[in-house]
Amino acid sequence: MNLTLRIWRQQSATAPGRFVSYRINDVTPEMSFLEMLDMLNEDLINRQEPPVAFEHDCREGICGSCGFLVNGVAHGGQRGTTVCQLAMRFFNDGDTLTLEPWRARAFPVIRDLIVNRSAFDRIIQAGGFITAPTGSAPDANAVLVPKEDADTAFDAAACIGCGACVAACPNASAMLFTSAKVTHLNSLPQGQPQRDQRTLSMVAEMRNEVFGSCTNHGECEAVCPKQIPIEFIGKLNRDLIRALWHRRREPLKIPSVVQLPCAEDAHEHFHDDIRPSQEVARRQLQEDVPAPLPVGSPEHAGTSR
Amino acid sequence: MLEARIPSGPIEQKWDKCRYEMKLVNPANRRKHSIIVVGAGLAGAAAAATLGQQGYHVHCFSYHDTPRRAHSIAAQGGMNAAKNYRNDGDSVSRLFKDTVKGGDFRARESNVHRLAEVSVNIIDQCVAQGVPFAREYGGILDNRSFGGVQVERTFYARGQTGQQLLLGAYQALEEQIAAGRVTMHIRSELLDVVIVDGRARGIVTRNLVTGEISSHAADVVVLATGGYSNVFYLSTNAKASNSTAIWRAHRRGALFGNPCFTQIHPTCIPLSSEHQSKLTLMSESLRNDGRVWVPKKQSDKRAPKDIPESERDYYLENRYPSFGNLVPRDVASRNAKEVCDEGRGVGPHGQGVYLDFADAIHRLGLETVREKYGNLFDIYQRITGEDAYTVPMRIYPAPHYTMGGLWVDYHLMTTIPGLFAAGEANFSDHGANRLGASALMQGLADGYFVVPATVPDYIASTKLDPVDASHTAFRLGEAEVKDRINKLLASNGKRSPDSFHKELGKIVWDECGMARSDAGLRKALARIPELREEFWQNLRIVGNGEELNQTLDKANRVSDFMEIAELMCLDALHRNESCGGHFRVESQTADGEAKRDDANFSYTAAWEWKGTGQAPALHKEALTFEYVPLSQRSYK
Question: Which residues of A touch B71 (CB under 8 A)?
Answer without folding.
Answer: 57-58, 63
